[in-house]
Amino acid sequence: MSFSDDLARHLEKNRITRRQALWLLGAGAAGAATVSLQGCATSPVTGESILVGMTEAQEREIDAQVSPHQFSQDLGAIQDAAVNGYVVELGRTLHALSHRPGMPYSYRVLNANYVNAYTFPGGAMGVTRGILTELDDEAELAALLGHELGHVNARHAAQRQGQSLLAQAIVAGVNVAAQESRWADVISLGSVIGASALLASYSRDNEREADALGQEYLVRAGYPASGMTRLHQLLVDQEKAAPGLLETMFSSHPMSAERRDSARHLAETRYAKSAAASPRRERFMDRTASLRRLKPTIDDCKQGESAMAGKRLTDAQSRFTSAIRRTPGDYAANLRMAQCLHAMGREREALGYAQAAQRIYPQEAQAHKLHGVLALGLRDPGAAFGALDAFDRLLPGDPGVIFLKGVALEGMGERARAARQYHGYLQLTQQGDAAQHAFERLKSWGYLR
């Protein structure tokens, strides 16, 4: 079948919704994992029959497809091998004691500044530096990881419809502050929905069960059950102090006080003997010291992100300036400054910070994407294509980047190569200004009759 016939056949189909377009991004590579299989399975935790929407193979496939995009949205793993290794070590201790020790668990501390921890159905887990610097001891960290392990072990994600999970959790597009962009339709596809949508879907019963399992696992590992109580208390205190900044695994069901009280009851009754166990505070402080030294920088970034969300861009810039002054080589601070300046229309200044972020952490994709978007705005399509192509090599499968590579190639006069990018984009979505632009270019260039 010719290029033209293939595209024409695709465009003749019914137009698809954005949710379906997101689903198709996962479907294109997942093979058997794209079929939503609904049926009964045995709960690894209770031994009872549960209704699931995906197989264990699909759980693993979702991790492979989706988690790299979400972890990159959260600015990648921190460049601190010792701290990452510490969290991996603790995670392995805990999951070996869980109900599903054979899942492909993985752990990393992310450069994200907000307070959060999340996991994908196969056990790919992220802990933000924003929450790790708020914890007080290893028992609290074990409770945090244990809660996330609880979701995996109880197969909470699998108990939802598999297709619905992918449609909500796939992360794609161009996540930059460009509300006035002609391509806002494409940019909106890249909003950070992966983890938040995944967590928001959990029911209150799911959250309670994850708490109970997490508390069980941390006690099995030799920690006091009060670690879960203190974790919940920390989140209650955070919510009271700065409710607008709190984005956690608990925020979608604001009942932290209730859950804290339940954890306290279990600690004082079923797990009363664990009270004599050490919370291992000294070990936690030693192993996280290098990251905790960055807490003022992280707090500045957190406040800056909150100001950006409230469109207080001057305040945000001031916070990011402070963060960079404290830690010039901080990837997150430089990238956020670039995004802030871009939102202010100061593309040339923004580009300098994006390039600084690229130099600081060349293996992380987001700075390359932002560089590409800024270069397009500055009418430098060659530089834009180079940066976007670097992103694509690091993190393939982002439809927004496919489209923007087409825009860059078009600006370079490379019609045939641009047409291939536009065709690839239209295979993923056929709605919005970007899809219309791609279609019109292909038609005017003679690729469509």
What is the alpha-carbon Rg in Å?
23 Å
Let me know the largest β-sheet: 3 strands, mixed
Helical amount: 55-70%
Shape: globular
Q: Report mean pLDDT, rounded to a whole number.
A: 83
Low-confidence stretches: 1-37, 165-181, 184-197, 246-253
What amount of the residues lies in strands?
under 5%
Listing every helix as H and every strand as E from the N terminus to the C terminus, the arrangement reads HHEEHHEEEHHHHHHHHHHHHHHHHHHH
Kindly state the number of beta strands: 5
Structural class: mainly alpha
**Strand order, largest beta sheet:** 3-5-4
Oligomer: single chain
- Taking the alpha carbons of the first and last residues, their distance comes to 15 Å
Number of helices: 23
Question: What does this 3D model show about the protein?
Answer:
- The protein is mainly alpha-helical and 449 residues long.
- The chain has a domain at 33-180 and 191-291.
- It has helices at 3-12, 18-30, 56-73, 81-95, 129-132, 138-153, 162-169, 184-188, 194-200, 204-220, 226-241, 256-268, 281-287, 289-292, 295-309, 313-326, 331-343, 347-360, 366-377, 381-394, 399-411, 415-426, 433-444; strands at residues 39-42, 49-52, 106-110, 117-119, 124-128.
- The strands form 2 sheets. The chain has a 3-stranded mixed β-sheet with strand order 3-5-4, with helices on both faces.
- Helix 17 (331-343) packs parallel to helix 19.
